[in-house]
Amino acid sequence: MSGIDSSQHPPFIFPAYQSSVLRGPTRPLFDLGAFHAAQSGAALEARASLAGRFRLGELDHDMTRNARQGGEPLGERIVVSGRVLDERGNSVSGALIEIWQANSSGRYAHKADDHDAPIDPNFLGAGRCITGPEGRYRFYTIKPGAYPWKNHHNAWRPQHIHFSVIGSSIVCRLATQMYFPGDPLLDLDPIFKAVPAPARDRLIAHFDLGVTQPDFALGYHFDIVVAGSSATPQDDHRGGDQ
After folding, report:
1. CATH code assigned at 215
2. Residue 201, in any domain of the structure
3. Does the CA dihedral 233-235-236-237 come out positive or negative?
4. How far apart are CA 149 and CA 156, in angstroms?
5. DSSP assignment, residue 239?
6. What total number of domains does the chain contain?
C-alpha cells in the first residue's frame, strides 16, 4: 500500500522472531514508485485495475458453512466485521479481503502443519469477500485456537486470523494479523512484540455487541487502515510462523 510509515510497522528482521533472521531482506528494497512510473508491460499489468476480476462464491465469506461435509465445524462461532479505510479516513470500496486461520484446536488445514491436534473436516479455515461502498466487510468463522511453534522453548502463538487486503492493483496490498482482546499470550509473542508498542492496539479486535448475532455468534470489530501514520501494522514476515 502507498503512504506507508515504516516507523509504525515491524522491522523485516526481528531477532526474537528467529526465522525472520533467515528470510528478512538484507539488500536495499526495490522502489515500487519507480516501477509504477515505468511503462513496461509488467509495470502496466501491476498497475491495472482489479475491478471485476474477483468472482466470489455465495459462501466465501461464511467459513462456518463453506467447507461443510455433513456436519457443523467445531468451536465457538464468531462474526468479524469492520471497514477498510485509507490514510484520510475515507472508505476503500471494492478491495479484496482474504483471511486464513487455524481451526478451534489450533491446526491449519495444510499439509505442512504437523501439530498434534485434530483436523476439522468441516472447516477449511479460509475465506474472502469484497468491501462494499462504505468499505465494510463481514466474515462468519470459528474462533481459532492457540498453537505451539518452534521459535523458542514452550512457544505458543496467540489466537489470530491472517488478513490480506488488495486494493486497486496487485501492488496495493497489506498483509496483517488480527488478535483477540485479553489474550495472555500476546505479551509473550515475538511476532506481536515486533510491532512498535504504540501501534500494537491496532492489531487487536474489539468485542462488539452490535456485531454479535443473538443465539448464534459473538461479534468482533476490526478496522483496517491501509496507509498513513495510523495504518494497520503490516505482517512483514509472510510465509508462515515456523
Report:
1. 2.60.130.10
2. yes
3. positive
4. 6
5. S
6. 1
3-state secondary structure 130-182: ECCCCCEEEEEEECCCCEECCCCCCCEECCEEEEEEECCCCCCEEEEEEECCC
Is residue 191 domain-resident?
A: yes
**For the whole prediction, is pTM greater than 0.70?**
yes
Residues identified as active-site:
108, 147, 157, 160, 162
Q: Is residue 234 domain-resident?
A: no
pLDDT tops 50 at residue 203: yes
Residues 230, 62, 179, 172, CA torsion sign = negative
| 232 compared with 159, residue with greater pLDDT | 159
Report yes or no on 231 lying in a domain.
no
- Which domain does 141 fall in, by range? 6-23+35-225
How far is Cα 192 from Cα 205, in angstroms, rounded to an integer? 14
Q: Residue 206 pairs with which residues in a beta bridge?
A: 221
Copy the grid coordinates of residue 133.
461502498
CB-based contacts of 32: which residues, under 8 Å, 6+ apart? Answer: 171
Using the predicted structure, report yes or no on whether residue 127 has a pLDDT greater than 90: yes
| Mean local confidence (pLDDT), 233-238 | 68
**Residue 143 neighbours by CB under 8 Å, 6+ apart:** 75, 76, 77, 78, 104, 159, 180
pLDDT in tens, 81-92: 999 998 888 999
**Amino acid residing at 233:** P
- Cell numbers that stand for 17 in this block: 522472531
